[in-house]
Amino acid sequence: MTEKKEPKLQVSAVRAISHEKDLDGLSCASIVWRYAQRKGLVYNVTLTDYNAFEQVFPTFAGLRNTLLVVTDLGMDMSSLDTAIDSLSKAAAQGCRIVWLDHHLWPDKAVKAVLSLPNKPVLKIRHDLCAAEITCKVLMPDDPVSAEIAQLARDTDFNRREIEAAVALTDALSVLRFAAVDRREDTTSALKPLMLSLAEHGLSGVWDESKKQFKDDLLEKRVHNYRKEKVKKMRKALAGHQDLEVHQRLVRIVEIPAGVTTTDMGTFLSDTANLEVDGKKLPLADLLVTVSPGGMLGFRRGRDTVLCNEAAKFFDGGGHPYAAGGEYGMYTDFQAMSSDIFVTLSRSKDWVVNVSSEG
Hints:
The chain has 358 residues and is an alpha/beta fold. It contains 13 helices and 15 strands. The strands form four sheets. It has a six-stranded mixed β-sheet, sandwiched between helices. It has a five-stranded parallel β-sheet with strand order 2-1-3-4-5, with helices on both faces. Strands 6-7 form a two-stranded antiparallel sheet.
């Protein structure tokens, strides 16, 4: 008996789905665009965040003969059923799914994606940012994609060694926050920047000789944003809560409106910024940032803590150096901070080298 072969899929379009909040997500979308151009495929993109899976994924259920590339997004377990159901319907209509990410995934989510029809591809690596994974899988021999991926790595791993990468992160925030304030679509607001980066790499948006954006208006907007951002972060730091937990200094700070978790984490990891009322503060081992909606960000000041392990206590995850979780809505910052301190005190899983210290 001759084994029946599966028909070869013939995709005619690429739909990118990527994270909207940072340069890593935008860089992934840019690299996927370059892949689509190389293959001569129609390209479209949706930039989104975790709390929007229930709205975004059902829009893909009606697609046909499309390569769906999801990047820099871990599976939102609260939306697992919706996402898998939508992707299954798309696969039944000739779509193929490629999911490239660097966050921690529960086994249930991994199995759910790999069980989809049409031989889905799921690549998860924790030692790379998502843009690097996307480059290696889709465009391994493309210098422009490699350059874009390195920009993302500089910000995602909090290196802050490439001035242009830092500027791009701020530009993304400027455009995104403006769109949110005007209740406009964030994908539409960010797409021009993404396409400029995708077409020519860094040279498409950045004047290296002048160390500024080629778009004068964008340069001015970023400059003004940076001044206001520093003021807000200094004010936020003044209201911080500190406590030593398992011989590690934990600092909790509220994120002001118009400032990202990455911004706050970077600012508070620089000892030059740690001054309140003329008093110099020590660098925290673990920094916990809290958004107005109760979302938590974890960043480390030293390699004596594991952010991903700390985030697990708050239904989150990520990397040892950066992670996210959720506390929920709160009205009393001090009471919430005390609750977080108590939760972290119940386990030493997030502390490095506990056994060697006794």
